[in-house]
Amino acid sequence: MGGGNSVTGSLFNNLWAVQEGRCAICGEPMPRGRFDVPHATVWKKKRPSFDHIRPRNKGGGDESDNLQLAHAGCNWRKGDSWKP
Ligand SMILES: [Zn+2]
Fold first, then answer.
1. How remote is the CA of residue 71 from the centroid of ligand 1, in Å?
2. CA distance linking residue 79 with residue 37, whole number of Å
3. Most buried among 26, 41, 51, 55, using CB within 10 Å?
4. In degrees to the nearest 10, what's the CA dihedral of 44, 58, 5, 18?
5. Which residue from 31, 65, 28 is spatially nearest to 48, judged by alpha carbons?
6. Number of domains forming the structure of the chain
7. Does residue 5 register a pLDDT over 90?
8. In sequence order, what are the residues at sequence separation of 6 or more whose Cβ sits closer than 8 angstroms to the Cβ of residue 55?
């Protein structure tokens, strides 16, 4: 543990480039910023968020190779449903 908030802007940018701005879960494009969407409630669901490919409560870490970008809404829906 430790290291605090290791999720950096450059990691975000790397993942964004690799995924070409698309959600890792549903494959749809993600808005880059709040003002790319018409309303704050849309942003809340569609904003890009860091998703742990292997959830932390299943032993997944915060390493960049365990992180992907997904819509916040897709991330929530996925929840703890990861299966080995
Ligand atoms: Zn999505």
1. 4
2. 24
3. 51
4. -70
5. 31
6. 1
7. no
8. 80, 82
Q: Please, which pLDDT band fits residue 61 given cuts at 50, 70 and 90?
A: very high
Alpha carbons 61 and 46: distance in angstroms, whole number: 24
Tell whether the model's pLDDT for residue 30 goes beyond 60: yes
Number of other residues whose CB lies within 10 A of the CB of residue 39: 8
How many whole angstroms from 6 Cα to the centroid of ligand 1?
Answer: 23
The domain of 34 spans 9-78
pTM: 0.80
Does residue 3 form part of some domain?
Answer: no
Backbone angles phi, psi at 67, to 5 degrees: -115, 145
Q: What is the mean pLDDT of residues 45-50?
A: 96
CA of 10 to the centre of ligand 1 (A): 21
Task: Determine, yes or no, domain membership for 15.
Answer: yes
